[in-house]
């Protein structure tokens, strides 16, 4: 016997009482059964058939007030039998159609907006993953005082100045605990040359490949303005010097170069973020590893017995920054 039928209360006594002309329990039975049907989390075929038999038989016999209450209760309820809907229609009562199922995005937004709900770790991970692409949900989560700043690192690009500062301080507190591998030696020089040539696509590709970023890493920025903030974190993780970073800010994009305030804010971000902190912020924002050592990489100590003993080891020096060409009208 289905669980819904075996667990249902025995109403045979009430049904017998309903046949007593001195007592009119039909409205009570109909309302109680309607409440149970609407509140049921799952409705199998046997439960639907039982409610159909009872309700379709009682609706024509109850008073108008009871019929109206039942129609309101069943409004938007899924699994409503056609016979029950027809019985109410015969009384001149329309039942609202079933509500469309709530999508996950709407449910997540309602959950985030409820200050009385304590968001657990797994739920927070799901919300943060969606909020990376949903600016409204990101704004709601950033405004919650019960979520630690470190947990909000994936939403750094969506945060305001105060939020970014708090997140940055929380990330910096633990960033140095994890080793930060060196970026490719020639990456900084290649980026400077590409910026000087104003090859934006080549610059973005070289930076992403040098740090092991996803191919579409710039799409993590919610708007064009925040793309340069993301690029600045990547430049810091790529171990560019401050002079090299400033050169990129002044040559790669004319719109940025013409704004003194914008260049100053980017330089400030570059200065105030450690290389390990920039790496960890990128990991959180992109949800992907950054600057991870390859599994096949072999560590060779410089002073190990197999190390080559060179009497004159030339120190690799980065080439000087190319001079910025002066434009003539």
From TrEMBL:
Taxonomy, superkingdom: Bacteria
Region Disordered, annotated ranges: 92-112, 304-329
Protein name, as recorded: DUF2336 domain-containing protein
Species in which this protein is naturally found: Methylorubrum suomiense
């Amino acid at each position: 016997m289905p669980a819904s039928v075996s667990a249902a209360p025995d109403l045979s006594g009430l049904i017998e009482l309903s046949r007593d002309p001195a007592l009119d329990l039909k409205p009570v039975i109909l309302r109680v059964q309607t409440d149970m049907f609407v509140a049921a989390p799952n409705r199998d075929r046997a439960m639907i058939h039982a409610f159909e038999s009872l309700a379709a038989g009682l609706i024509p016999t109850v008073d108008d007030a009871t019929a109206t209450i039942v129609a309101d209760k069943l409004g938007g309820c899924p699994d409503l039998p056609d016979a029950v809907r027809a019985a109410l229609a015969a009384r001149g009562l329309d039942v609202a159609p079933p509500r469309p199922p709530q999508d996950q995005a709407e449910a997540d937004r309602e959950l985030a907006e409820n200050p009385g709900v304590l968001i657990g770790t797994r739920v927070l991970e799901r919300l943060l993953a969606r909020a990376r692409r949903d600016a409204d949900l990101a704004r709601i989560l950033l405004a919650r005082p019960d979520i630690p700043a470190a947990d909000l690192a994936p939403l750094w690009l969506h945060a305001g100045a105060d939020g970014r500062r708090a997140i940055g301080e929380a990330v910096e507190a633990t960033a140095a605990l994890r080793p930060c591998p060196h970026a490719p030696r020639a990456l900084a020089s290649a980026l400077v040359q590409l910026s000087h040539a104003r090859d934006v696509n080549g610059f973005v590709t070289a930076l992403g490949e040098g740090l092991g970023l996803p191919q579409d890493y710039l799409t993590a920025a919610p708007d064009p303005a925040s793309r340069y903030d993301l690029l600045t974190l990547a430049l810091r993780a790529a171990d560019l010097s401050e002079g090299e970073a400033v050169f990129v800010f002044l040559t790669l994009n004319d719109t940025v170069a013409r704004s003194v305030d914008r260049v100053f804010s980017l330089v400030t971000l570059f200065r105030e973020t450690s290389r390990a902190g920039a790496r960890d912020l990128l990991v959180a924002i992109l949800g992907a590893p950054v600057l991870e050592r390859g599994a096949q990489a072999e560590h060779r100590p410089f002073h190990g017995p197999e190390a080559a003993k060179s009497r004159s080891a030339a120190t690799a020096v980065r080439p000087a920054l190319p001079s910025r060409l002066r434009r003539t009208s």
